[in-house]
Every structure is written in C-alpha cells, then in structure tokens.
Amino acid sequence: MTERVVPETERRRRRPTKQGTVLTESIIVETALRLIGQHGAQALTVRRLGAALGADPSAIYRYFHSTDDLLLAVAEEMIGRVQREWRPTGDWRTDLSDLGTRIHACYAAHPQVALLAAHRTTGRGNEMRVVETILGILRSAGFPDPEAVRIYHAFVDQALAFAALDAATLALPQEARAADGEVWHSRYARLSPDSHPNIAATARLLAADMRGSGYPAALELLLDAAAVRLLPGGAA
Predict the structure, then answer these.
(1) How many C-beta atoms surround the C-beta of residue 133 within 10 A?
(2) What CATH code is assigned to 88-230?
(3) CA dihedral in degrees (135, 155, 114, 30; nearest 10)?
(4) What CATH number does the domain located at 8-65 have?
(5) Whole-angstrom Cα distance, residue 188 to residue 60?
(6) What residue ranges do the domains of the chain occupy?
(7) What is the mean pLDDT of residues 170-181?
(8) Taking a C-beta distance cutoff of 8 angstroms, is the pair 22, 5 a contact?
(9) Of the chain's two ends, which shows fewer C-beta atoms within 10 Å, N or C?
(10) DSSP assignments along 32-77, one per residue
C-alpha cells in the first residue's frame, strides 16, 4: 500500500459496497483486525481488505494514507478497548494492576495483532488518554515526577513485552505449543539431582508454572517494588 493522499472532502464513501455496507474507518479497522487474526501480517493489504469489504481496494485510500496508517489505527483501537470498561477505584496499586491485566489480556486475545502492533506508538487520542491516566495515578499516589515517568515506562513496556511474548506462543501451531510444554516433563523433569540439583528440586513446580504466562507474577513484583519506593526512606 503506497502513500496516496486523498483530500479530506473526498474521504467519505456514501455509496454502499457490494455487501451493502457503507464504509467507515471503524468498519475498516474491525475488518483489518479480523483478517490479521485469521491470516497474520500478510492480511494487511489493500487487495485483501477490499475483497473482505466488498469494495474497490482504492476506496481504502479515502480513510487511510498507507498500510502503516491503518496499522496505527488498529493499534489505537486495541488501546481503546483496554480502557472501554475500566473504572478507577482510587487505589493506585489496584488501578495499575487492573490496567496492566487488561492491556495484557486484550493483546493476548489478538495474538497476531500483538505481534504487529504492540510495539507501536500511535500519538492518537486513545493512547494519549491512557498515558495521561497512568501518569495521573502515579502522581496522585505521591510519586515524584521523575519516579512517575520511570514507573510508567517500566509498567507499560512490561505489559506490552509480555503481551508480545505470549502472543508469539499463542500464534504457534497447536502441535508446536504442545511440544514446547511437554519439554518441561520429558526433559527437565528427568534431569539428575547430581548434575542439575536446582532444576531437579523444582521440576514439578516448573512444569506447572511454565504452562501459563509469567506476566501476573512480573506485574506483582513491579508493583511491590514501586510500593517500596513510596515508603519513608524509599528510593523515591
């Protein structure tokens, strides 16, 4: 999809597509989300989108200047979904825990999108709102501005990094995922205490814990560390 600017006055298509749908940005983004989920990164083309929408591919240019512009809109939609049903409680730790869990869960539900978009910065409304919200939670809790920014950075990067990591696992074929999980039983659980005493001592725990994401534990550790910095004499 190459750069091609269509004047704003000409961007809205009023005639319905072959499927009887009048195109909007949200319909195109929803269709892109579905196609990426089904076919991965290669789905994000004008030809595929046009076919799925029942529209001439050139109609996409009325709403998005390029494939990257559309990808940023997809990322922005994901960020919007994180905030859609979130409500603050007034307790900084509860609110950050809930937000982090929602970020991770939203991308985990769309693993192919996470691989494409979790690392992007949109600079758009939904993203700005969540940045403002997280910084507001931290500053209201009493973190000085330098600490608030550092914790914000670590918090967001941790959630998105785990989302991308777990998305890569979820995007694997089922057989590959099962084979990876079985390694903890077939290889690690059989190691000798003489050669690998620490693995042998914790093999059953490892096999159980490695079945799921490490994000909940990592989030708890990050929030524990942040809480210590608020205590008298803490680093903050």
Answers:
(1) 16
(2) 1.10.357.10
(3) -20
(4) 1.10.10
(5) 51
(6) 8-65, 88-230
(7) 91
(8) no
(9) C
(10) HHHHHHHHGGGG-SHHHHHHHHTS-GGGGGGT-SSHHHHHHHHHHH
Q: What is the pTM of this model?
A: 0.82
Question: How remote is the C-alpha of 140 from its chain's centroid?
Answer: 26
CA-based torsion, 211, 214, 216, 220: positive or negative? positive
47: nearest Cα among 60, 59, 57, 35? 57
DSSP letter (8 states) at residue 10: G
Q: What is the dihedral of CA 217, 218, 224, 230, to 10 degrees?
A: -160
Dihedral sign for Cα atoms in the order 211, 214, 215, 219? positive
At 151, the amino acid letter reads I
On whether the CB atoms of residues 112 and 171 are closer than 8 A, the answer is yes
Cα→Cα distances 146→9, 92, 94, 149, 230, Å: 44, 17, 21, 5, 13
Provide mean pLDDT across the span 192-200: 98
Q: Name the residue among 141, 130, 142, 132 with its Cα closest to residue 99.
A: 130
How far is 117 from 23, CA to CA, in rounded Å? Answer: 23
d(CA 30, CA 140): 36
Of 105-119, 180-194, 210-224, the least confident: 105-119
**Contact 209/189 with Cβ under 8 angstroms?**
no
DSSP secondary structure letter of residue 90 = S
Determine the pLDDT at residue 6.
Answer: 47
User: Quick check: 139 pLDDT over 80?
Assistant: yes
Q: Which of 136, 158, 159, 162 lies closest to 149 in space, CA to CA?
A: 136
